[in-house]
């Protein structure tokens, strides 16, 4: 394997484009990948990389994991020659490892090395299919939070009726707690992601609640709603108020804001429901000879439906609020899912999203403010300064 370009231009210098988005110009994008995380191991990661690498001629990849095993897998994919380097890691973070244990003893693992490549500036973005709690813990201690960010969040794409095919929801499980200031902060970060990662110039923000009426919800939610509404004009987003669970896939909202507990339950419920519907359809079409014939007639329509609802196409949650981009791929991802996560990481790095979010956060902080005080000022005044 040849070594990826890791010089001072590995990240690139963001420049302004005519569309108002940041581009890394001619600099190469370097993506750091935890090759050992996930249920299917390094074989799925290398196979996923081989799917998408051809569409990323300006990218290099650092694979972290068992060098012997990875070298054998990469030998089967000659097209990856010249784009990939292997960084040996003798240990692996398992799905059963506790985040606290990984924080104390995680050095030398593929996950730790993956994040450290971003910390050192050798890579622009990190991708892992591993233990979510451990990944967030390692990212927090190695990359640190952006100044002014109280709680980082995981943003995930949700299939919807919008033109892009997706809505954005955060937090999807980074932290089960979130007060009013945190939720307002999520709205600001979600709006920034929607502008830079989804191409929405003025995203519509909704706050997840048990109803859309103003009198519904907890006092914390009402306080958060006021903060988000107050910052809407300066943050260059449209706040549509409360949304319900039925609005998650709708076309009336672009970014759904909620706490990590609620978001994670909603996400896992949707995944389970999608699998149940797929099982029901399979059983129904296999019930009789006539239904099997009907399935043959409807084959093309069923393939289109499966493609549109395939959760692998929207695989990858982005950690927002850190000094670096981290994309969390689903633990059960196969090659297709891994490819989708790497593609998401590439697009975010290529757009200069990390620099733009950092600039947005910095512009919202008052002079001399830091820590929790700065976080609450950010939530109160989200969107001050120049738009991305």
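^ structure tokens above, recovered residues below v
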């Amino acid at each position: 394997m040849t070594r990826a370009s890791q010089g001072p231009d590995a990240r690139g210098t963001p420049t302004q484009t005519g569309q108002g988005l940041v581009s890394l110009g001619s600099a190469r994008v370097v993506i750091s990948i935890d090759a050992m995380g996930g249920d299917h191991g390094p074989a799925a990661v290398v196979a996923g990389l081989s799917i998408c690498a051809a569409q990323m001629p300006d990218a290099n990849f650092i694979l972290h994991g068992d060098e012997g095993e990875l070298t054998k897998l990469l030998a089967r994919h000659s097209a990856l020659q010249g784009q990939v380097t292997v960084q040996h890691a003798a240990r692996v973070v398992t799905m059963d490892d506790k985040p606290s244990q990984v924080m104390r003893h995680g050095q030398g693992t593929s996950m730790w090395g993956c994040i450290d490549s971003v910390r050192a500036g050798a890579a622009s973005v990190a991708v892992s299919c591993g233990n979510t709690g451990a990944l967030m813990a390692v990212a927090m201690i190695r990359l640190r939070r952006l100044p002014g960010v109280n709680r980082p969040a995981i943003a995930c794409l949700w299939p919807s009726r919008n033109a892009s095919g997706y809505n954005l929801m955060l937090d999807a499980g980074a932290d089960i707690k979130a007060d009013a200031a945190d939720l307002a902060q999520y709205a600001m970060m979600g709006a920034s992601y929607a502008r830079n990662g989804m191409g929405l110039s003025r995203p519509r923000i909704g706050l997840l609640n048990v109803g859309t009426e103003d009198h519904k919800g907890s006092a914390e939610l009402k306080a958060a709603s006021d903060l988000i509404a107050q910052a809407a004009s300066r943050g260059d987003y449209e706040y549509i108020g409360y949304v319900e669970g039925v609005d998650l896939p709708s076309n009336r909202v672009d970014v759904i804001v909620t706490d990590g507990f609620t978001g994670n339950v909603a996400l896992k419920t949707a995944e389970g429901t999608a699998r149940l519907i797929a099982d029901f359809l399979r059983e129904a079409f296999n019930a009789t000879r006539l239904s099997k014939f009907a399935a043959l007639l409807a084959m093309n329509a069923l393939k289109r439906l499966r493609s549109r609802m395939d959760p692998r196409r929207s695989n990858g949650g982005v950690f927002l609020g850190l000094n670096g981009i981290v994309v969390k791929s689903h633990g059960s991802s196969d090659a297709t899912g891994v490819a989708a996560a790497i593609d998401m990481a590439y697009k975010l790095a290529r757009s200069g999203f990390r620099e733009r979010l950092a600039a947005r956060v910095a512009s919202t902080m008052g002079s001399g403010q830091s820590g929790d005080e700065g976080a609450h000022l950010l939530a109160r005044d989200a969107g001050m300064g120049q738009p991305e």
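Confidence is low (pLDDT under 50) at residues 1-26, 366-388.
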